[in-house]
Amino acid sequence: MFSQFALHERLLKAVAELKFVEPTPVQAAAIPLALEGRDLRVTAQTGSGKTAAFVLPVLNRLIGPAKVRVSIKTLILLPTRELAQQTLKEVERFSQFTFIKSGIITGGEDFKVQAAMLRKVPDILIGTPGRMIEQLNAGNLDLKEVEVLVLDEADRMLDMGFADDVQRLVGECVNRQQTMLFSATTGGSTLRDMVAKVLNNPEHLQVNAVSQLNSTTRQQIITADHNVHKEQILNWLLANETYQKAIVFTNTRAAADRIYGRLVAQEYKAFVLHGEKDQKDRKLAIDRLKAGGVKILVATDVAARGLDVDGLDLVINFDMPRSGDEYVHRIGRTGRAGNDGLAISLICHGDWNLMSSIERYLKQSFERRTIKEVKGTYTGPKKVKASGKAVGVKKKKTDAKGDKKKTGAKAPTKRRITNRPKTDTPSLVSKDGMAPLKRRKPEAPAAE
Ligand code: AMP
Predict the structure, then answer these.
(1) How far is the CA of 338 from the centre of ligand 1 (A)?
(2) 85 lines ligand 1 (CB under 6 A)
(3) Strand runs labelled E in 186-301
(4) In what residue span(s) does the DEAD-box RNA helicase Q domain sit (predicted)?
(5) Whose C-alpha in 142, 153, 200, 318 is 20 to 30 A from the C-alpha of 132?
(6) What is the pLDDT of residue 24?
(7) Does residue 422 carry a pLDDT above 60?
């Protein structure tokens, strides 16, 4: 029960209004410590309820009578516009019975409108690092009186190349009394450096290890012969699965556009979201999906980051994500807050080793599924190593025959990946023992 926390009654009223009954594990662990003013490092994935875990303590600290605002008291930094918008919404829902005001600063929005908002001085400022720095450079942003700093999805901010910007903004919060850093993964050395620099004797809560995906989400793989076959399977799934809303992930913008085109041609209510879409399109896609006008979203990783849409119960990986963390982020779109979800990955011979690395990384075995109506010939490698990866096939054979189908499972070679079109995936390297696959230049934080 939320009443177990020493939260102000106006916040408990909002919690009740939102029909939150039981705190999630991350909330149960983090809220009491955050209320004590402790610095926190929390490893928790999207969908775990982490936003309320920091928003409620932040609001509790700020709650009080209406007054003229003189300074920003809380800064929440996060990687993408969508996550910023969702966090703002969560803050507004929880603060509905208080006088606390919040504002948002992200790329893709009118700079002057943001400057005007900053002149009114919100209590809580939420935003992405790039635009924050621009507002800071323009002399519109004063962070000197910030008491609480939250770095949400810190691992992702670092992956997207925001380390210096974040560091600079942290440096501006000279009088901060509490810092909370959230990440979906335990991260690499850059995250460790940031934790060491930014947090003061933090409590580390590893509530949701990256390997513990939402247990309510079933994870399946379906083998496919090639991309055209994948499209047939996709069509079958979208026509026959029971779902309210679905998201189809691709690794490239071109693939997202291609699949979107095919779906629209079949009169599906679909939308496409990737880094080349402007902010208006992105908002429209998300709003329509939320309102139910659109049932299927085709998206790349950057674009879908932070999406939180009720009823999103089917995730299809048309392309396998290139790291275990990315897989977790994608699958985190479904099965949120205890709802059932289904995640299906389509696996060609070139995807097999990546898929098996991800299984190992997650310490899980995906359910193998066959659909007789669209069954192909490829069913996985003929021989697998103890690791689950395919036993290598001599390259010469493949080249000579030029017939990939007959070669069985073939490891995705570096070259093949390097030759892919420009990726929309932001993470640069695999982490924590994942297959060391090279990434192409990531999409510039176009999400910014
Ligand atoms: P988050 O991980 O913060 O993005 O939260 C995922 C979703 O779960 C959001 O839609 C929240 O509003 C919802 N949520 C968070 N905590 C709870 C809770 N204790 N009870 C029910 N829903 C929750």
Answers:
(1) 9
(2) no
(3) 203-205, 217-223, 245-249, 270-273, 296-299
(4) 1-28
(5) 200
(6) 86
(7) no
The residues spanned by each domain of the chain are: 2-208, 212-374
**E strands present in 11-70:** 40-43
Q: What is the model's pTM? A: 0.58
- If you measure from the C-alpha of residue 330 to the centroid of ligand 1, how many angstroms do you get, rounded to a whole number? 17
Look at ligand 1, atom 5, and give the residue with the nearest C-alpha.
Answer: 49
The tens digit of pLDDT for each residue in 202-259 reads 999 877 544 445 566 889 999 999 999 999 999 999 999 989 899 999 999 999 999 9
Per CATH, 2-208 and 212-374 having the same topology is answered: yes
Which CATH number fits the domain 212-374, given the four candidates 3.30.1480.10, 3.40.50.300, 3.40.50.10070, 3.40.30.10?
3.40.50.300
Whether ligand 1 lies within 6 angstroms of the CB of 51 is answered as yes
Query: What is the structure's pLDDT at 446?
Result: 32
Q: Which fold has domain 2-208?
A: Rossmann fold (3.40.50)
What SS3 class is residue 168? helix
**Residue whose CB lies within 8 A of the most ligand 1 atoms, among 12, 20, 56, 245, for a mutation test:** 20
Alpha-carbon distance of 295 to 383, in angstroms, equals 39
Q: Does residue 275 have its Cβ closer than 6 Å to ligand 1?
A: no
Question: 166: which 2 tokens?
Answer: 């974040």
Which residue, among 349, 384, 337, has the nearest Cα to 365 in the 3D structure?
Answer: 384
Question: Rounded to an integer, what distance in angstroms lies between the CA atom of residue 345 and that of residue 351?
Answer: 10
Q: Which residues pair with 179 in a beta bridge?
A: 149
Give me the mean pLDDT over the 131-157 stretch. Answer: 96
